[in-house]
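Example complex used in Figure S2.
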Amino acid sequence: MKWSEFFTSSVGKKLVMAFTGLFLITFLIVHVGINACIFADMVDDSDNGEMFNKAAHFMGASYVIRLMEIGLFIGILAHIVQGFMLEAQNRSRRKKGYAVSMGSQGSAWYKKSMGLLGTLILLFLIVHISHFWVPSRITYETTLNEVSYNGREMHNVFSKMVDVFQNPVVVLIYLLGCFSLAWHLLHGFQSSFRTVGVHNKKWLALINSVGVGFSIIVPLIFALMPLSIYFGWVTK
Amino acid sequence: MEHYTMNLTLKVWRQKSSGDNGRFETYQVSDISSEMSFLEMFDVLNERLIKEGKDPIAFDHDCREGICGACSMYINGRPHGPWHANTTCQLHMRAYKNGDTIVVEPWRANSFPVLKDLVVDRTAFDRIIQAGGYISVNTGNPVDANAIPIEKDKADAAFAAAACIGCGACVAACKNSSAMLFLSAKVSHLALLPQGEPERKSRVLKMVETMDKEGFGSCTFTEACEAVCPKEISVTNISRLNKEYIVAGMTEEK
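Predicted assembly (490 residues):
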């Protein structure tokens, strides 16, 4: 069987979704861990985003990580493109629909709304990337003040973040992004394991429990960032 | 359960042929017994239509005891009607009360084109089975049933998968019109048994290929199929199918 045949069959296409999805889940662990560094300010008044700035600097400081970043973007793009293509293809499989819809009988709304939730996350990502990644990694925007720790100059991403999250509309967009991510993960986490062939009931029960925990905890930590800054729990 | 009679309004999909656009027609049926089956209620209506010189409603049916998989009505937004683990032929009118309106549609999927009224062409399923849903055996005397030892758990799981009657409710319920529950049941029941071992890899590859050619969608694990399956086939079989496909795809030389 050719590679192209394997990955373009209906099962193969789902495998691409599952593998890229699982890869993005591991990325979320790294991302949320680095983001959580801003909370150091809540326990240490002198931190002022130092821990976060150092972590953010580390994520852009070496070529190894910049190369991994390219891999990340390829993963994100593959997940998005394949997701849209699959959604369009699956929708086209029933040209004439039903007069009476099944609604949510036997299937929760979010399981049937992965395309919509994914699109909302994509819209959020565009806003998010233009807020932080583009000015810090591409345009080296002057609004990103430099800060110096032990003689080492780096971007003050923390300062930029505090500025961005003063706007309630931006906070709302971020909360909507986290909300969409939570529901997307709630289905995507366990579904991706099933797609890659896990069918042992004990393992599926464990994966389901971990998935529910992950889908609540990770988006909650993400959501706490704009909230903490907007309500002044974390300050410059 | 107390017997009662009821008057109902039926909105039934009527379509002269596969080329016809089709439309809903409304029928009033009266004095329907709560002890009738859903298909018997259609028989009563059809007898009346024939007496009136009208074309009776075409619908698939055969055994009328839930084992052949012929009946295929999408009733009030659910394949096989409101009861769990039930076929249309086993649905009884006690599920309804006097004055109810019931909307009856055919299975909807490009791969199941409507032939007439509520009858759809499900030969796509036959072609999937023909692609590999069998074991090749030499003719001769049957082997003793106990000659090949099989673990009880495996035998039970294989039997549960083999209970699939190929009615197509999974496709009808799936938002993607995916046939993965059907296919996974057929692949699983043979993959779990030693008799299925020799053709295990080529079977899954050929059956998935045929399913794709027939134009069914892919599985996104919404689990709507499992919820409406009259034989309670589990979506766990789909995970097993995926595993079988991955292993076969990566190891089969062809």
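Chain B touches chain A through 55 residues (CB under 8 Å). The radius of gyration of chain B is 20 Å.
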